[in-house]
Design brief:
Strand content: 5-15%
Structural class: mainly alpha
Largest sheet: 2 strands, parallel
Number of helices: 8
Number of domains: 2
Order of helices and strands: HHHEHEHHHH
Strand order of the largest sheet: 1-2
Length: 144
């Protein structure tokens, strides 16, 4: 959306794509989204694209198509993802392992319990159950 503010002449195309996808109850394809990005990119001297969660794209073929479309854009890319073999040959990639510390996970779970009304009522006053829930989540998270 930020790009559309810089290149307002691309807004009608983006609105039409949104309307079309809404009517079909579908998300835009990689090529549809890339078409608009290419139109916008042609109006700019350069820009950055951040893709967060590439690993969450369900099909490998979709990830490959998205990467192919992104490579054709005159933009700098920052892709955040769990490790994917797909990225190794495709891009100059730097891998930065990020893991939550156990203490962070425990703090997050306890905070979430407090802020979730129904859950906090169920666990209210039962320190042993709260600790069991927290510890189970911490163990299963494996630093995620």
């Amino acid at each position: 959306m930020q790009l559309l503010h810089q290149v307002p002449e691309a807004l009608p195309s983006a609105k039409e794509l949104h309307k079309s996808c809404s009517l079909r109850n579908m998300k835009p394809s990689s090529s549809e989204a890339a078409s608009i990005l290419k139109r916008v990119a042609g109006q700019l001297n350069g820009f950055q694209i951040v893709v967060d969660g590439l690993d969450e794209v369900p099909e490998e073929s979709e990830r490959q198509e998205l990467l192919q479309e992104l490579r054709e854009l005159p933009a700098q890319l920052l892709i955040l993802s769990r490790p994917l073999e797909l990225l190794r040959p495709e891009l100059l990639a730097v891998s930065l392992p990020i893991e939550a510390r156990n203490e962070d996970i425990v703090l997050f779970v306890k905070s979430s319990i407090k802020s979730h009304l129904q859950l906090s009522r169920v666990l209210d006053g039962d320190a042993q159950l709260t600790e069991m829930v927290t510890e189970t989540i911490r163990q299963k998270s494996q630093g995620m």
